[in-house]
Amino acid sequence: MPPRKRLLSYILLNVLISALTTLLVLWIWDQPHRQSDQSAHLASAQATVDAMAGSPAAEIPASTEDAPEEIQIEIENIFGAGNLNSEVAVIKNKSGGSLTLTGWRLENGRGNGYTFPNLVLNSGGAVQLHSSAGADSVIDLYWGQDAPVWQAGDTASLLDGQGTVRATHEIR
Q1: pLDDT-based confidence at 53, cuts 50/70/90?
Q2: Helix count and strand count (H, E) for the chain
Q3: Around Cβ 111, how many Cβ atoms within 10 Å?
Q4: Is pLDDT of 126 > 90?
Q5: Exposed (0-12), middle (13-18) or buried (19+): which is 124, by Cβ within 10 Å?
Q6: Angle, vertex CA 70, rays to CA 66 and CA 72, nearest 5
Q7: What's the sign of the alpha-carbon dihedral 137, 129, 102, 42?
Q8: What's the pTM?
Q9: For FRET with 122, which of 2, 48, 72, 108 sits at 20 to 30 Å CA-CA?
Q10: CA–CA distance, 117 with 62 (Å, rounded to integer)
Q11: What is the DSSP string of 63-132?
Protein backbone atom coordinates (compact mmCIF):
# COMPACT_ATOMS: atom_id res chain seq x y z
CA MET A 1 0.00 0.00 0.00
CA PRO A 2 1.47 3.39 -0.94
CA PRO A 3 2.43 5.62 2.01
CA ARG A 4 -0.15 8.24 1.09
CA LYS A 5 -3.09 5.78 1.19
CA ARG A 6 -1.80 4.30 4.44
CA LEU A 7 -1.63 7.77 6.01
CA LEU A 8 -5.15 8.58 4.80
CA SER A 9 -6.55 5.33 6.22
CA TYR A 10 -4.88 6.04 9.61
CA ILE A 11 -6.35 9.56 9.64
CA LEU A 12 -9.87 8.27 8.83
CA LEU A 13 -9.55 5.56 11.49
CA ASN A 14 -8.41 8.19 14.03
CA VAL A 15 -11.37 10.47 13.18
CA LEU A 16 -13.83 7.58 13.54
CA ILE A 17 -12.41 6.44 16.88
CA SER A 18 -12.34 10.03 18.20
CA ALA A 19 -15.96 10.60 17.22
CA LEU A 20 -17.10 7.35 18.84
CA THR A 21 -15.14 8.10 22.03
CA THR A 22 -16.67 11.58 22.26
CA LEU A 23 -20.20 10.21 21.81
CA LEU A 24 -19.58 7.54 24.46
CA VAL A 25 -18.27 10.10 26.98
CA LEU A 26 -21.24 12.40 26.36
CA TRP A 27 -23.69 9.52 26.73
CA ILE A 28 -22.08 8.38 30.01
CA TRP A 29 -22.05 11.96 31.36
CA ASP A 30 -25.70 12.52 30.42
CA GLN A 31 -27.09 9.50 32.27
CA PRO A 32 -26.82 10.79 35.91
CA HIS A 33 -27.48 14.41 34.91
CA ARG A 34 -30.67 13.83 32.93
CA GLN A 35 -33.02 13.95 35.97
CA SER A 36 -31.05 16.17 38.35
CA ASP A 37 -30.18 19.26 36.33
CA GLN A 38 -32.72 21.79 37.66
CA SER A 39 -31.48 24.66 35.53
CA ALA A 40 -32.05 22.65 32.35
CA HIS A 41 -35.44 21.64 33.73
CA LEU A 42 -36.46 25.24 34.29
CA ALA A 43 -35.08 26.29 30.92
CA SER A 44 -37.36 23.74 29.30
CA ALA A 45 -40.35 25.39 30.92
CA GLN A 46 -40.74 27.68 27.92
CA ALA A 47 -43.12 29.99 29.74
CA THR A 48 -44.30 32.89 27.59
CA VAL A 49 -44.36 36.33 29.18
CA ASP A 50 -46.30 38.94 27.19
CA ALA A 51 -43.67 41.61 27.89
CA MET A 52 -40.93 39.40 26.41
CA ALA A 53 -42.84 37.81 23.56
CA GLY A 54 -44.78 40.92 22.59
CA SER A 55 -47.63 38.73 21.44
CA PRO A 56 -51.22 39.77 22.00
CA ALA A 57 -53.36 37.69 24.33
CA ALA A 58 -55.35 36.38 21.34
CA GLU A 59 -52.29 34.38 20.27
CA ILE A 60 -51.82 32.70 23.64
CA PRO A 61 -52.80 29.02 23.43
CA ALA A 62 -56.06 27.99 25.08
CA SER A 63 -55.66 27.12 28.75
CA THR A 64 -56.90 24.07 30.56
CA GLU A 65 -58.98 26.37 32.79
CA ASP A 66 -62.13 25.20 30.98
CA ALA A 67 -61.67 21.79 32.64
CA PRO A 68 -60.83 22.47 36.31
CA GLU A 69 -60.29 18.79 37.11
CA GLU A 70 -57.38 18.75 34.66
CA ILE A 71 -55.48 21.64 36.26
CA GLN A 72 -52.49 20.35 38.18
CA ILE A 73 -50.28 23.16 39.35
CA GLU A 74 -48.12 23.44 42.42
CA ILE A 75 -46.02 25.88 44.35
CA GLU A 76 -42.93 23.68 44.27
CA ASN A 77 -41.04 25.68 46.89
CA ILE A 78 -40.30 29.14 48.21
CA PHE A 79 -36.59 29.65 48.69
CA GLY A 80 -34.83 32.33 50.77
CA ALA A 81 -37.83 33.40 52.90
CA GLY A 82 -36.98 36.55 54.85
CA ASN A 83 -34.20 37.69 52.50
CA LEU A 84 -35.47 40.00 49.76
CA ASN A 85 -32.50 39.35 47.45
CA SER A 86 -32.89 35.57 47.52
CA GLU A 87 -36.66 35.08 47.90
CA VAL A 88 -38.08 33.14 44.98
CA ALA A 89 -41.27 31.12 44.55
CA VAL A 90 -41.18 28.29 42.01
CA ILE A 91 -44.53 27.53 40.34
CA LYS A 92 -44.81 24.38 38.18
CA ASN A 93 -47.51 23.23 35.74
CA LYS A 94 -48.07 19.51 36.22
CA SER A 95 -51.08 19.44 33.88
CA GLY A 96 -51.08 17.55 30.63
CA GLY A 97 -51.46 20.76 28.60
CA SER A 98 -50.67 24.46 28.60
CA LEU A 99 -52.03 26.61 31.39
CA THR A 100 -52.70 30.34 31.11
CA LEU A 101 -51.86 32.11 34.39
CA THR A 102 -52.94 35.57 33.25
CA GLY A 103 -54.78 37.19 36.17
CA TRP A 104 -53.87 34.46 38.68
CA ARG A 105 -52.55 35.61 42.09
CA LEU A 106 -49.90 34.35 44.48
CA GLU A 107 -50.68 35.51 48.04
CA ASN A 108 -48.86 35.23 51.35
CA GLY A 109 -51.91 35.43 53.67
CA ARG A 110 -50.79 38.75 55.17
CA GLY A 111 -52.14 41.09 52.51
CA ASN A 112 -49.36 40.76 49.92
CA GLY A 113 -50.28 39.38 46.52
CA TYR A 114 -48.74 39.21 43.05
CA THR A 115 -50.97 39.13 39.96
CA PHE A 116 -49.46 37.26 37.02
CA PRO A 117 -49.15 39.04 33.65
CA ASN A 118 -50.01 37.35 30.34
CA LEU A 119 -48.22 34.08 30.98
CA VAL A 120 -48.57 30.57 29.60
CA LEU A 121 -46.88 27.61 31.25
CA ASN A 122 -46.52 24.61 29.00
CA SER A 123 -46.97 21.13 30.41
CA GLY A 124 -44.11 20.48 32.83
CA GLY A 125 -43.09 24.15 32.65
CA ALA A 126 -42.11 26.27 35.62
CA VAL A 127 -41.65 29.93 36.42
CA GLN A 128 -39.69 31.60 39.22
CA LEU A 129 -41.24 34.62 40.95
CA HIS A 130 -38.60 36.75 42.66
CA SER A 131 -39.75 39.13 45.41
CA SER A 132 -37.16 41.74 44.44
CA ALA A 133 -37.14 44.10 41.46
CA GLY A 134 -35.73 43.01 38.11
CA ALA A 135 -36.50 42.51 34.44
CA ASP A 136 -39.00 39.76 33.62
CA SER A 137 -37.89 36.93 31.35
CA VAL A 138 -39.58 33.78 30.11
CA ILE A 139 -38.70 31.85 33.28
CA ASP A 140 -38.18 34.64 35.83
CA LEU A 141 -40.75 37.19 36.99
CA TYR A 142 -40.04 40.01 39.45
CA TRP A 143 -42.48 41.31 42.05
CA GLY A 144 -40.61 44.59 42.70
CA GLN A 145 -40.97 44.62 46.51
CA ASP A 146 -38.85 46.75 48.87
CA ALA A 147 -38.97 44.25 51.75
CA PRO A 148 -39.18 40.45 52.05
CA VAL A 149 -42.63 39.03 51.30
CA TRP A 150 -42.29 35.56 52.82
CA GLN A 151 -41.52 34.37 56.33
CA ALA A 152 -41.53 31.02 58.13
CA GLY A 153 -45.07 29.99 58.98
CA ASP A 154 -46.66 31.73 55.97
CA THR A 155 -48.88 29.70 53.68
CA ALA A 156 -48.51 30.73 50.07
CA SER A 157 -51.72 30.37 48.05
CA LEU A 158 -52.07 30.34 44.28
CA LEU A 159 -55.52 31.52 43.16
CA ASP A 160 -56.93 31.33 39.66
CA GLY A 161 -58.70 34.23 37.92
CA GLN A 162 -61.97 33.39 39.68
CA GLY A 163 -60.36 33.38 43.15
CA THR A 164 -60.32 29.58 43.55
CA VAL A 165 -57.28 28.30 45.47
CA ARG A 166 -55.38 25.97 43.12
CA ALA A 167 -52.25 25.32 45.20
CA THR A 168 -50.81 26.08 48.64
CA HIS A 169 -47.35 25.78 50.18
CA GLU A 170 -46.37 26.20 53.82
CA ILE A 171 -43.04 27.91 54.38
CA ARG A 172 -40.93 26.27 57.06
Answers
A1: very low
A2: 3, 11
A3: 6
A4: yes
A5: middle
A6: 120
A7: positive
A8: 0.61
A9: 108
A10: 16
A11: PGGGSGGG--EEEEEEESTT-TTT-EEEEEE-SSS-EE-TT-EEE-SSS-EEE--SEEE-TT-EEEEESS
